[in-house]
Queue: 3 jobs
Job 1
Amino acid sequence: MTFIDYYKILGIDKTATTKDVKNAYRKLARKFHPDLNPDDKDAKKNFQQINEANEVLSDPEKRKKYDQYGNDWQHADEFEKQKQYREQSSGSRGARSSGSEYGEDFSDFFESMFGGFSGGRQGRQMKYRGEDYKAEIRLELIDAYKTHQQTITVNGKNIRITIPAGIENGQTIKISGHGSPGVNGGPNGDLYITFSVANHSIFKRLGDHLYATIDLDLYTAVLGGEMILDTLDGQVKLKVKSETQNGSKVKLKGKGFPVYKRDDQFGDLFITWSIKIPTNLTEKQKELFTQLSKS
């Protein structure tokens, strides 16, 4: 298995703090977001690697295992149990070899452990961890806006999962123990679910913020007024300043997308006004505009 350097992916060193990991992840997630790189065929792959690196390095326990075992960090518990078993077996025979019994490469160890090795000198059967499963769930943007449950079928088995609000397009989460069953009483594998969040016809999502271009009639733009705006969380009444210019922007604080696994925290909604010039004017209306232009 090719070694994947999570530190290199996030552009940090091994002394990085949890805050450093978080900041690096947020910066790269925005840079390589598939929605921002529609012509880059590797954008989705890069984004998945960034999410995977963040999932491991932001968790102190996972990070500790990764630092010690590298790519094989997910099998660290099995390795430690097997190591203890070998030490106990060696101790019961009253001697140890002069060489390092555990000096073999981790990859060689796992190849023997999961590639068919069975039975010790006492005829015990080796326990094998089950294989991991991978699945994909497609969501509309409005579905990713609120925490909800879905039932998916994996290998003929229905699994009910809770999808947290704020899930990212391309993000992968792990459901422990829902992979292939273990052999000889070994632990089950895990289920890795990657989410594909579709674009919205009005709102564009970048991280926790939402962006939309909204039509504004000329008269309201000139004179000011109020308008009702539909958001993902219902309607809001928005005041329009007089003499609003085409392309000007308004920020609605806290009306953006929910922050992943941060209750009651939301990004902002940015509105860009697109002023529409009236068409099919009557002669009287044209006359009034003429008078206005001369005033």
Job 2
Amino acid sequence: MRPGLDEVRAAAARISGFVRRTPLLAAAPARDNPELANGLILKLECLQVTGSFKARGAISAVFALPPERLRRGIVTASGGNHGFAVAYAGRAAGVNTTIFLPRSAAADKVAKLDAWDARVEISGEAWDDSNRTALQYAAAEGLAYIHPFADPEVIAGQGTIALEILEEAPDLDTLLVAIGGGGLVSGIAVAAKALKPGIRIVGVEPIGAPTLHESLAAGRLVELASLDTAAVTLAPRRSEPVNLAIVAANVERIVLVEDAEMREAARWLWREMGIAAELSGAAAVAALLVGYYRPTPGERVCAIVCGAGTDGIG
């Protein structure tokens, strides 16, 4: 099921009180790249509870579950951020939570999940491998599985970002959105296009994990044979039909950025504004800094800084 604007608004009511309304910040004035900063605003989801936008979708999905199903517990697979969000949602709901992580997950992310009272299981080399194990475990134990990007309630939760942006900046022309599996861009596109049909949505993926870029080019879902990016939260091998359908209908194009370009964007955010963004969180800004997306004179652009971290500024 593809969620629509009504579902996004319902998600906004459901998550109220559990997530932060994150600020919009004008990038100008800026010392480095002052021309780029003019007309650019940043949606700081790096300041969201748990450190990324993922809390919106997780809370939306978990609190949409029937109470009797929720009580049995919840399970998911994650490269990190979705896991934190589901662990937070599970603790907010007072239920047992199990998170499957790939071996590539950083040790500090495992420790952070422990701090959110989640049980952690390590399985597989990439998110897709962990996800298969999580699905099997959820089915065997009768637990609710929270998909990181293909669940309609997760997509609706992520769409609440667009509600906030367009309420504060209704004159925006373009939204730049990082893409992993496609939950964030799907939710934002659904809500933004419903509220303002002429708005432009541009996706950004790592060149080493062009999951939806390749799927759009092929006209079908493509599973990547390999992944080559340090931005592991943007690196599933395969998206899902609901995300591809929404992206194909609403996203103007997807641009690809190198890890080094995301790292430089993270450093720019830190130098200019003291914003600590992880590589994936800086992806949308990287597309602008490098010039893969060039705004026209007077164009109003919003880049989503979708996650916090220090992997890009060390």
Job 3
Amino acid sequence: MSVTVRSFAKINLGLRIGALRPDGFHELRTVYQTIALHDIVRVSVRRGSGIEIRCDDSRVPTDESNTCYLVVERAMVELKASGRVVIEIEKRLPVQGGLGGASGNAVAAVLALERVLKKEMSAPERLRIAAEVGSDLPLFLVGGTVLGVGRGEEVYPVPDLPAIVCVVATPEIGVSTPKAFADWDLLVSREPEVSGKLTLPAASDRMVEFGRVLSAWLGSQSQIKQKQDKHKSGRALSGVPVSKGRGRAETLLLDLVRTGIENDFEQVVFPKYPELREVKRVLERAGALYASLSGSGSATYGLFAAREAAEKAAARLRTDGVPATATTTLTRPQYWKKIFD
């Protein structure tokens, strides 16, 4: 028996880099958002032992270094199961592109494995194993709009941003995440000598600032939803008209943009890869309400109010030789429905 599932991608709605931790990781604050772009993962369990990974993309490791291997190995022990696990990965997402492809594959493999074995781990056990393997894995056990703290592995579901059209550009540029972190540390350490004064707030202050920004945004979500749910006639309790012709997704997104939320990696990645900065500019000029690097890149995305504008932006990028696709973000219910659909 085999089970086939979709393995969805993520983007980062803002990413704040904090201080280097004793464990060698950086403290992070980010809002993850799952999107509809995906790989396909198929899992079967046969006679024998061990884990076999198959993938036609030569850039995907098929040995013990593969994230799927690491998480399935732990899951088999936790489930007290035996047999030879075969994991087939059909890659549609870029490798090392900032979309969480490898992490999503690993979580998809575990979910498929449980269905094959007809056994389930508890939610806390799944999260524990995922966090042991990698920082991005736990978000795929939540889906939708997710707050990530710690090194990104501590995840908390927040009220979903309604589904909105998204253009994802995937330039064929390999950005090393460890190198991007190292460049960030160098930027922070050299800031005083370069500019004569420290312009970046202290790491702890940056974390607090991000928390305030997120709290303000979540508060606006609640207020807007109440207004639109209770006053569909177009007026709020205060007598202030609710914007007509603007969906809740667009309104919330504009509120998020006004907070000044951004991805810190852009400060060190864009100077080295100016073509990525240009991709962001193309998206903004095409009408994106918000555009950003995802993770450390190279994937760059833009969120749009209308499908037509998004399709035109994607076409423009493809004309320039940049692979780009118009897709949508996924709410938490959509994410869990489509994984197994």
